[in-house]
Design brief:
The chain has one domain. The chain has two helices and four strands. Strands 2-3-1-4 form a four-stranded antiparallel beta sheet. The chain is elongated.
């Protein structure tokens, strides 16, 4: 357990106009927001086109690369649970997949845990 470190993994989701149409509705994006995802609406007049959403997953891992993999997988699974959809849904052959997930950054988070340590009075917590 000592070799595990705590990481914040920032994952961005992009919706691709695969096959000539957008797969997610405005209600889907509202569900993501309610579940803690931050949705970016680049054009306030057109709230459907070009949206992205970002989430952060906190994970224990042995390395930054492992945190990248675990955090990305957790974000996809969270997205699937919130929306009831398959993150790996196939798209058309020319446009590619409709749903794209990308780890934007991984940051080490320093935390202190007093569990199992003596306090000033000799009591173990």
């Amino acid at each position: 357990m000592d070799d595990l470190k705590y990481y914040a993994v920032y994952v961005e989701f992009d919706e691709n106009n695969s096959g000539g149409y957008w797969r997610l509705s405005s209600q889907d994006y509202q569900k993501l927001e309610a579940a803690g995802w931050v949705v970016d609406y680049p054009d306030p007049l057109e709230r459907r086109r070009g949206r992205t959403a970002t989430t952060v997953q906190f994970v224990w891992a042995r390395s930054e690369d492992e945190a990248d993999t675990i955090g990305g997988d957790l974000a996809k699974r969270h997205w699937e649970i919130v929306l009831g959809r398959n993150a790996g849904e196939p798209g058309c052959f020319c446009c590619g997949r409709p749903f794209l997930f990308m780890v934007d950054k991984v940051e080490r988070v320093e935390i202190e845990c007093d569990y199992g340590k003596d306090d000033d009075h000799g009591d173990v917590h």
